[in-house]
Amino acid sequence: MFVDKVKIFVRSGKGGDGHVSFRREKYVPNGGPDGGDGGRGGHIIFEVDSGCNTLMKFRHQRHFKAADGENGGKKRCHGKDAEDLIIKVPQGTVIREAETGHVVADLHAAGQREILFKGGKGGRGNQHFATATRQAPRYSEKGKPAKEYWLILELKMIADVGLVGYPNVGKSTLLSMVSNAQPKIANYHFTTLAPNLGVVTNQYGKQFVMADIPGLIEGAAEGIGLGHDFLRHVERTKVLLHVVDAAGSEGRDPVEDIYAIQKEIELFNPKILEEKPQIIAANKIDMGNCEENIARLKAEFEPKGIKVLPISAAGNENLQELLKDVADLLATVPSENIVFEPEFEEISTMSNEPFTVEEVNEGYFVVEGHGIERMMGYTAIDTEQGFAFFQKYLREKGIIEALENAGIKEGDTVNIYDLEFDYVK
Fold it and tell me: Which positions in this protein are listed as binding GTP (predicted)?
């Protein structure tokens, strides 16, 4: 079964907590702090698997979680770093963050490997917090939290030329005649359900990759049928080759077919028709009575710069001329693969994250913000040193100033998630 779009959950590993301990050995009853650091959590890594061409395996496994880092130990023992989690995907997979739809990565190259979400950094042990005035710190850092996201994986076929058209117009036959591809061919009144790729070499030695995009229908851009599943493969191609039934054997008008396909592509992504050159293959000329339709096609589209070439895929007529014209069009576009640039940005620091201060009752203030919540997640608030660090954070990030601007007075209560304390000037 061909699967080209899935939704999965990924979670990088949490960093291990730093350790609090003191050197206790014979003849050294009051040794200094020797708590070790926590290990790093596992990264989430995506890697291109050249032997895979479908996202089928993600139908059976949707949750991927890297291991957490090991906690630090006494005697300055560093916690073990967790192993990274490698997720293998087909070449051409575009990864998006599910909530925003922003592109996280485009794995378009063979062997490409991307660290998408790094594991949390391990917390520092108490050995790092000893000073001349504080020689026995009973405080350590917690490991940095894991990163977790829902992702959309979309497989967009990488091909130079995309064959587009209605079902049963001869796209699969054309691909089988000009390449090494072997698609199933019959007089179906339904469409091929999976794209087929073939490597084409014309008589002049020009080589390119051609993809048979499964037949489109009206309403595809709105998701009717399998429209979106098919249209996404058009985005990666460089040249569009429209295949139409010039004989009208299915009872459709070939001119109207071209306009209908163009409309669906434009509704899905207007940039496709703006950026990609097009050519029309008027197929099935071996069936006769095609002259009028071919003349209409040329009169309608050639003034717009879209060449119309009569062919017979089944009879191998004019196919080399078609391949020459396609190669000439390819020479006019950049040779590099079409790549979707990353749009997704992780919030790497908490200092820039917004927060809110609200007086919900007289003398009772509530402070909220993702940065504050995360900071509390890896700071030991219940220790004297940890709470001092927390107070410093509130001052440096402007939260104390914001409370004062909101009218807080000494003795008023501040609530920050699960923590409540009295404000003291």
Answer: 165-172, 190-194, 212-215, 283-286, 312-314
65 is in an annotated binding site: no
402 is in an annotated binding site: no
Q: Is the pLDDT of residue 138 over 50?
A: yes
Residue 318 is labelled as binding a ligand: no
| Cβ-contact 90, 112 below 8 angstroms | no
Instruction: Please report how the helices 384-396 and 370-377 are oriented relative to each other, as an axis angle in degrees rounded to 10.
Output: 160
Structure tokens at 43: 């990264």
Q: What is the CA radius of gyration of the chain?
A: 31
* 285 marked as binding residue: yes
Question: In which band, very low, low, confident or very high, does the pLDDT at 218 lie, cut at 50, 70 and 90?
Answer: low
What is the CB-side half-sphere exposure of residue 17 using CA atoms within 13 A? 10
The response to whether 245 counts as a known ligand-binding position is: no
Statement to judge: residues 143 and 243 lie in one domain? no
* Least reliable range by pLDDT among 18-32, 36-50, 221-235, 323-337: 221-235
| pLDDT greater than 80 at residue 374 | no
Here the tokens at position 151 are 């992702």
Instruction: Provide the angle, in degrees to the nearest 10, between the axes of the packed helices 319-330 and 171-178.
Output: 90
Q: Is 188 part of any known ligand binding site?
A: no
Question: What is the per-residue burial (b if ≥16 Cβ within 10 Å, else e) of 45-70?
Answer: bbebbeeebebeebeeeeebebbbbb
Please tell me the distance from the alpha carbon of residue 194 to that of residue 97, in angstroms, as a whole number: 25
Token pair 């599910």 is at which residue? 98
With a CB cutoff of 8 Å and minimum separation 6, the contacts of 314 are: 170, 173, 177, 284, 286
Instruction: Using a cut of 0.70, tell me whether the model's pTM lies above it.
Output: no
CB neighbours of 31 closer than 8 A, spacing ≥ 6? 22, 23, 24, 25
Is residue 171 part of an annotated ligand binding site? yes
Question: Does the pLDDT of residue 351 top 70, yes or no?
Answer: no
What average pLDDT does this structure show over 258-271? 88
pLDDT surpasses 60 at 390: yes
CATH of residue 205's domain is 3.40.50.300
Residue 158: partners with Cβ closer than 8 Å, 6 or more residues away:
91, 92, 108, 209, 236, 337
- Same-domain check for residues 183 and 266: yes
Give the domain range for residue 46: 1-155
DSSP line for 204-251: TS-EEEEEEPPPP-TTGGGT-TTHHHHHTTGGG-SEEEEEEETT-TTS
Residue 311 marked in a binding site: no
168 annotated as belonging to a binding site for a ligand: yes
